[in-house]
Structure formats: C-alpha cells, structure tokens
Specification:
InterPro entries: Rbsml_bL25/Gln-tRNA_synth_N, Ribosomal_bL25/Gln-tRNA_synth, Ribosomal_bL25_b-dom, Ribosomal_bL25_C, Ribosomal_bL25_long, Ribosomal_L25_dom, Ribosomal_uL5_bac-type. Helix content is about 20%, strand content about 40%. By secondary structure, it is α+β, with helices and mostly antiparallel strands.
C-alpha cells in the first residue's frame, strides 16, 4: 500500500489552551495510539490534504522533529461542524508483525453488458474492511465487471486471499446488475430464453403421447 509522509512536532502541552493555540496557527493536534504510550504531536493542516480528501487508502509515515518516524494508519478524524476544518486526528501505530484493520476501496473495471442492455448497476460496497499485516494491505480491490449480466452479482467470496481476512460474510454482494423496465436481453440470453420456451412447449406434448 502507498504511504504518505506527514511532518510534525511532538507536543509537550496537551491542555485546552495549547490545543486552541495550535488550531489558531493552522495546525492539527494528533495522537498516535498502539505503542507503549500515546504520542501527542501536531502537524500543519495542509499536510493532511492527500490523506483525507481522497477516495484512496494510504498508510502514513509520521516524521517528527529529531528524526523520529512512526508507521501508522489514520483511525479517526474530527471536523469543525461549520468550517469543516480538521480539529483532531487519531492514528494507530503499525508493526510489521501485528495485524491491523483497515477499509480498502473497491474499483470497478470494464463495462457491464448488463448495463449496456438497460440494467441498473448497484455498487453495494465501495469499501471493504479487512485485517492484515501492514505489508499485505492492498491499495484497492479491483473487480472486473465486463462479464456481469442482468441479474448477476459479484460477492466477497470472489475476492478471498490468504494474505488478508475480509471482515464481511462471503455472500456479501459488492456489485450487481438488476433488471430495469427498459432492459433488453443479449443474443446469448435470447437464445437461452428461446431454448427454455421450446423445452416447456415440448414437455406437455410428450406427456400426451404417453
């Protein structure tokens, strides 16, 4: 998984006055959990742009004064209810031998024939929660929908791998194509329908001969 570096400085004072002064200076108070003790630091609000305002998932390298660096993932973020400025960010420290839980975005690849024929694409899960070692965290789940017909779906069961655990039931639908009133069948689907109709028509006739 790609990583973003956020430069900051450790905070000695964590009181309300010090926190307010930081925010007035355009900085964001942050905490890293998961280590021996919580680590308080502050960073420029602009440095969070590529981490927060993106659909992508990233790990973070927190680069503090004095050369101290910590691998982490963003765990929680608080915004001002009016201005939408960032008020506070919590991180969770990563360790190579310790699994972490993270939401991974889903990307759809290709064009669904079911949609081309008038079906409605329902993107049920745009992110999937997984548990994995930091080195096994994927950037995306790529799902090919180029063969997804009307009535078809793709579930979590098709995305399973040994490198991580997906924290959703295997039958969870990620994307599907539902029929719409103006939907039309493909030639292949037409043939299947005609064959089914012919078989249904022949069945009573065979029964009558007996």
């Amino acid at each position: 998984m790609k990583s973003i570096t956020i430069k900051g400085s450790e905070r000695e004072s964590v009181g309300k006055k010090a926190t307010k002064a930081l925010r007035n200076a355009g900085k964001v108070p942050c905490v890293i959990y998961g280590g021996e003790k919580p680590l308080h630091f502050a960073a420029e609000e602009l440095s969070f742009k590529d981490l927060v305002y993106t659909p992508n998932a990233h790990t973070v390298v927190v680069d503090l004064d004095g050369g101290k660096k910590y691998d982490a993932v963003m765990q929680d973020i608080q915004f001002h209810p009016v201005s939408d400025s960032i008020l506070h960010v919590d991180f969770y420290q990563l360790f190579k031998d310790k699994e972490v839980t993270m939401d991974i975005p889903v990307r759809l690849l290709g064009n669904s024939p079911g949609v081309r024929n008038g079906g409605r694409l329902l993107f049920r899960k745009r992110k999937l929660a997984i548990k994995a070692l930091p080195g096994n965290l994927p950037d995306f789940f790529d799902i090919d929908i180029s063969k997804l017909k009307i009535g078809g779906n793709i579930s979590v069961s098709t995305l399973l791998k040994d490198e991580f655990t997906i924290l959703h039931p295997e039958n969870t639908v990620v994307v599907q194509v539902k029929a719409a009133r103006n939907a039309v069948l493909t030639e292949e689907e037409d043939e299947e329908t005609e064959e089914g109709a012919e078989a249904a028509a022949e069945a009573p006739a065979e029964g009558g001969e007996e």
